[in-house]
Amino acid sequence: MEIVVNISDMKVTNRARDVLVTHALGSCLGLAAYDPVAGVAGLIHCLLPLSRDGKVPAKNPFMYVNTGIPQMIRTMYGRGATREHLVLKAAGCGRMMHISNQFDTGASNIAALKKLLQVNEMRLSAEDVGGTIPRTMRLFADTGRILISSCGRSWEL
Amino acid sequence: MSRREEILQKAMAIPNMPMPVQKVLAYIGNADADLRQLAKIIEFDPGLTVNVLRMANSAFFGGGTKVSTVKEALMRLGLGRLYQLVIASGVAPLARFAIKGYGLRPGELLEHSVAVAVASETLARELGVVAPPYTFTAGLLVNIGKTVMGSFLEVDAAPILTLAHERQISFEQAEELILGINHAELGALLLEKWGIPTPIVNVVRYRLRPDESPEPDLALDLVHVGDVIAKMTGIGMGIDGLQYAPSEAAFARLDVSPQQMENVMVAILEQIAEVRDILMENTL
């Protein structure tokens, strides 16, 4: 079954037949996490890098990279995933042409992710970020395969 | 005939807005317009009546105690808001179609248009400035040219996008090179023909290049930055994606901070659903 992850949303599954998908990644970050041993898959679509004053926003923690991703990964640990086996892949973080750095939310989103991973001594296995293209990201829960589609083309990540 | 002339000729043949909308617009343009008379014209049209009541009772536009008659709704919304709503109700149905040539599923363009409109007004609130009354409507109409290009004229945007990427130019510059006209200008010409007021038409015409506007316009700057914000969130994005250049001058004129921009992104996610539903569910 295809499960849609909206903007500022997160979904985790351990059903092999599920496909997690998020559309319309502009400057937002899409992060897919997969544990091939436990068969647990998670996908999150974060709008912004950091929640203000570092607090977890009660309304929607998945809106932010620094609150949403830890929560998704903890949920996956709860379903049997382990840190050692987790494979992380990122997509999105696009930007308008010539946008000035201070308004480049895409760059801030990927920077926030890298910092979060560095602190936790984890790393990305693959990324398809930046540029001006809109992206759709699919995570197949049976194999952990990631498919990016944009403008009528698709490629594996 | 050049491609530009061919496109203009076909576009100008597109039917006008629905009759009840034209009637109400003509009436509001009348200097002697009175609310009771206007309420009667609106009540004659069930679709428009439902829209007016829902808009007056929505959190975004009105809120407070519930109103149940068109007259009460008019008192609450005022003529300016009503004008916007009527134009929106007339044009929104056009944005509901799938726009294949531009890679948009049914409803996606309307979603993007609502995001631009809501972002422009929310940005004004965030900046503490009063948005000119036509800001919301202009924001809602900025994509009308895409509707015309992608569905009525069946333009395939893929080669345009390829050119834009190859030459590292904006999508609308590539449209001009291939078609002789971009979707902003085409939209403005169509709205002009439909008798939409000039300030709205100008925002649509210059929203991708506010620096080319003959005179400064707060609504134009708000819609330009609102459009940038809406595009970044990815809501209702077509294949043209983020292949556009923001105007640094417009950001500077409004004195937007990155934090304010983020606040608007958060706010539009919360607010677009309500406005979209009103426009989606009740077409004329």
From TrEMBL, chain A:
Keywords from the UniProt entry: Chemotaxis, Hydrolase
Question: Per the UniProt record, which EC number(s) apply here?
Answer: 3.5.1.44
Q: Which reaction does it catalyse?
A: L-glutaminyl-[protein] + H2O = L-glutamyl-[protein] + NH4(+)
Pfam families from the UniProt entry: CheD
Q: List, in alphabetical order, the GO biological process terms annotated in this UniProt record.
A: chemotaxis
Q: Which Gene3D superfamilies match?
A: 3.30.1330.200
What is the top EC class of this enzyme, as a single word? hydrolase
Q: Which GO terms describe its molecular function?
A: protein-glutamine glutaminase activity
List the PANTHER family hit by this protein, alphabetically.
CHEMORECEPTOR GLUTAMINE DEAMIDASE CHED-RELATED
Per its database record, what is this protein's job? Probably deamidates glutamine residues to glutamate on methyl-accepting chemotaxis receptors (MCPs), playing an important role in chemotaxis.
Family of the protein in this entry: Belongs to the CheD family.
Q: What is this protein called?
A: Probable chemoreceptor glutamine deamidase CheD
Automatic annotation (TrEMBL), chain B:
Do you know which InterPro entries this protein is assigned to?
HDOD, RNase_Y/CdgJ
Q: Which SUPFAM superfamilies match?
A: HD-domain/PDEase-like
Residue ranges occupied by any HDOD domain in the UniProt entry:
14-210
**Stretch forming the signal peptide:** none
Database matches in PROSITE patterns: HDOD (PS51833)
What protein name is recorded for this chain? HDOD domain-containing protein
Q: Which organism is it from?
A: Solidesulfovibrio magneticus (strain ATCC 700980 / DSM 13731 / RS-1)
